[in-house]
Input
Amino acid sequence: MLANQVLSYTLPHTKPHFQHASDRQREGEKERGEKERCCKMPGMLLGDIVPNFEADSTFGRLKLHDYLGDSWGVLFSHPRDFTPVCTTELGRAVQLSPEFSRRNVKLIALSVDSLEDHHGWSKDILAYNNAEAGSEFPFPIIADDQRHLVEMLGMLDPEEKDQTGMPLSARCVFVIGPDKKLKLSILYPATTGRNFDEILRVVDSLQLTAHNRVATPVDWRPGDSVMVPPSIPEQEAVTLFPAGVYTKDLPSGKKYLRYTPQPDPHQE
Output
């Protein structure tokens, strides 16, 4: 056998000999290694500082921490431009952008598409929303066609690949606090569009609980009663919540279901 002959398994009963790979094999191994590397998603944990990355976007060169300033942020990725589910998602995000702004939240979208594609697709999104001619897209879309950010942030979906076999970005949502820490993360598959009304709701909960020692129960909406955490003793709860604390009687006799009217969201 030649020294540079490609390893072959054509004869299953013959013990293979390890030889120097050909240039073609080395290129194939490099490509496979790149794909495998892209599928190993480190991701982030709640409470981690979100990296202060710098990237090109439809709003120009963007440095994350500088762009957010003292605001909250919602960084969300999508698999691909010019696709149906993604168009409906960003269309809804555009519709809700005034509500996010009212809560001091800046939206930032991201995918592995080019800046040119982002600019062209944003016009389709506005048309999908039946926006008036000349309307401006209200938030930036980051171009990460080299996959550096989605890999670093753990936003890749190893099950969804492009025509070359490279993984696409998943439907990730990162809510970032003014302290630049990750407050919430949600991951959806490519086949399931996100509910941006729910993202707005969890922002309301996060902002409320950031300033008040309360928790929000299932399906909570702003204005609903909130829950007193078990870590707060009964006497302290009376002082903390002058509007009153209601405790639901349970068969166990344990007094852990405690409710109180929602306090001021911005109360320190």
In short: The CA atoms of residues 246 and 259 lie 5 Å apart.
